């Protein structure tokens, strides 16, 4: 059976959420944006590009230009590197070994789908020696679109797709794309009480990639993907999620 496994990065492969958020807020301020709502879960899409655009719009009344978005991405990258240079970023237990195991098997293909911008993502993946297509918030502003882009880049067809993540936005993207799902974390709280504990892990050492991770959330437990999710266009086309 051919399987594509699509990994989120922050909080899933790496304990990078805190330094990323610190760098993110700093990059927003470097962009001249001071009115910042840091309740990240309240934004419609959990990606750097979407949140940057919303904060920019709130502060200026306009959408950022491509040059302004690139400036923000560059500053995010620079601040993340500076903030993690001394101590580095810890991996989720077993992450690198799990990726190596998958790379050695002809049954598995690996891809990465992250809400982070491309430049900072490259820095995070480098220590993992990660191999596979990478879709980021530099290509799409909708989280579901980032996952769809990763699946598209991976080719296929595959007998099944398994998404791996640590947040409710990851579950929503998995449901939207018809993917199975592995949750990474200490409790089911980020996903909801309905989430099966058989799908939850604190270490990749305990994950059997051949297991069935089908999700069947009760009605209303997973927020539906936005109506505009059907406007997805894979690269190199310009996706209308930027409109």
Automatic annotation (TrEMBL):
Organism from which the protein derives: Actinokineospora alba
Superkingdom field: Bacteria
Protein name (record): Phosphoglycolate phosphatase, HAD superfamily
Pfam families (alphabetical): Hydrolase
InterPro entries, sorted: HAD-like_sf, HAD_sf, PGP-like_dom2
SUPFAM superfamilies (UniProt xref): HAD-like (SSF56784)
Lineage: Bacteria, Bacillati, Actinomycetota, Actinomycetes, Pseudonocardiales
């Amino acid at each position: 059976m051919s399987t594509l496994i699509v990994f989120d990065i922050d909080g899933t492969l790496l304990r990078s959420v805190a330094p990323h958020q610190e760098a993110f807020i700093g990059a927003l301020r470097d962009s001249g944006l001071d009115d910042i709502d840091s309740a990240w879960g309240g934004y419609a899409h959990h990606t750097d590009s979407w949140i940057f655009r919303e904060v920019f719009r709130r502060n200026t009344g306009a959408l950022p230009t491509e040059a302004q978005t690139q400036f923000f991405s560059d500053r995010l990258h620079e601040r993340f590197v500076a903030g993690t240079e001394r101590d580095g970023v810890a991996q989720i237990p077993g992450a690198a070994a799990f990726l190596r195991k998958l790379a050695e098997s002809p049954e598995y293909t690996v891809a990465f789908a992250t809400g982070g911008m491309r430049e900072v993502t490259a820095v995070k993946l480098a220590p993992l020696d990660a191999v596979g297509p990478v879709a980021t918030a530099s290509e799409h502003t909708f989280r579901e679109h980032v996952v769809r882009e990763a699946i598209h880049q991976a080719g296929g067809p595959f007998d099944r797709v398994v998404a791996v993540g640590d947040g409710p936005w990851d579950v929503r993207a998995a449901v939207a794309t018809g993917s199975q799902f592995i949750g990474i974390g200490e409790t089911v709280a980020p996903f909801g009480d309905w989430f099966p504990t058989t799908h939850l892990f604190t270490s990749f050492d305990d994950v059997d990639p051949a297991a069935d991770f089908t999700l069947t959330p009760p009605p209303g437990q997973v927020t539906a993907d936005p109506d505009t999710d059907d406007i997805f266009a894979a690269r190199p086309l310009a996706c209308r999620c930027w409109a």
